[in-house]
Amino acid sequence: xxxxxxxxxxxxxxxxxxxxxxxxxxxxxxxxxxxxxxxxxxxxxxxxxxxxxxxxxxxxxxxxxxxxxxxxxxxxxxxxxxxxxxxxxxxxxxxxxxxxxxxxxxxxxxxxxxxxxxxxxxxxxxxxxxxxxxxxxxxxxxxxxxxxxxxxxxxxxxxxxxxxxxxxxxxxxxxxxxxxxxxxxxxxxxxxxxxxxxxxxxxxxxxxxxxxxxxxxxxxxxxxxxxxxxxxxxxxxxxxxxxxxxxxxxxxxxxxxxxxxxxxxxxxxxxxxxxxxxxxxxxxxxxxxxxxxxxxxxxxxxxxxxxxxxxxxxxxxxxxxxxxxxxxxxxxxxxxxxxxxxxxxxxxxxxxxxxxxxxxxxxxxxxxxxxxxxxxxxxxxxxxxxxxxxxxxxxxxxxxxxxxxxxxxxxxxxxxxxxxxxxxxxxxxxxxxxxxxxxxxxxxxxxxxxxxxxxxxxxxxxxxxxxxxxxxxxxxxxxxxxxxxxxxxxx
Length: 491
Known about the structure:
- The chain is an all-alpha fold.
- The protein has helices at 31-35, 48-75, 80-91, 95-121, 125-144, 149-163, 167-177, 183-211, 215-234, 247-250, 256-263, 269-278, 281-310, 316-344, 349-369, 373-402, 407-420, 422-457, 469-472, 486-489.
- The model is unreliable at 1-26 and 469-491 (pLDDT under 50).
């Protein structure tokens, strides 16, 4: 593949390719220096074939490590769902009281995801992610040792703050190692990791809870410690820190000049944050949509086993396997949704989200009115298939809207609104069920699905490079990512 070769010099400075927010960051040794985003390294590879081999190796390694690592974050967060019914019976708590724990966790996680998104844009994902997983493991152990509601809430609060350190380093890695026009597909593949994690932990905990609900927190914590060690060995920072050119140049989507124009390395990070995150109207639209998507998602994850047991008469083990199917269906749909967004709609992911939300609305209604347990299980799994399409693609859209300078913060903004939804999916659902039974909760869930579809309809024409004038105005894009009508794109 013919591509610009920006690495034709062996000097330390690469002005044409410099893209770090702080390119003058000194190369110091020590703990604090290793936690920061790493500066550009000396250029070591100048041959295009060598650069290609290095990129292939590191892209696979980065993708695999973040995929498995983030899956283990789910082992120490969604492990609470299967344990909830037994916790309520053993400790004497109502659904509303248990919903308080879920609400605390969800709200804190959303705030943490945004705050740590800003820190994640400026940090080395290798250590940032590992520290978050270790802290989360410790909080799970303490949660499992507790019985008083105040301590359960406090430790789940701290656990979800540490959980907010999981996604930002993944978003930073995806933003730097994979180009905008392949992020739908790549992010769909990556997204399968934590769905596998949530599916596996739902089955694991469905057997552990038979012996003691506290084992649902101790065993996943031990696995998370092993995962933190894997992350330290497997991850690295951005391509520039490895002496490689930006991924857009490597992929032939942009020239070095175009990369500089997009990321504007000379501008302070806070200006990028304000322009592309806080003042971006489309980012706010998909963030509000994310609120309703996460309401639906966590109503399924947290209350799904309870719904299946109380509404459909299923056993704890059977409900655990249906929740497994919910996650596996989302695994498949994430890949399918990413491929459709990139290949069929050429990066316009909002179209896939809108269509998926229409099917989701129907699936929620059919699950509600169906009495037969196995038919209800089918519709519950269909809900999982459709929920995870907008949940995944909204994050990919946010990364593109925020540019890779602020990709973690952009996804963090969608996250803070998404996890504020725990007010509805946690305490809200629990309280509504206590007052009006499950029928009242499903009226609310149907409304969430319908509003999400309308919001995503407004993003119908948002493309992979929303900052590019030609693409934003609908002009054809060539195979190397350049506008087919450059004279119009320059205007």
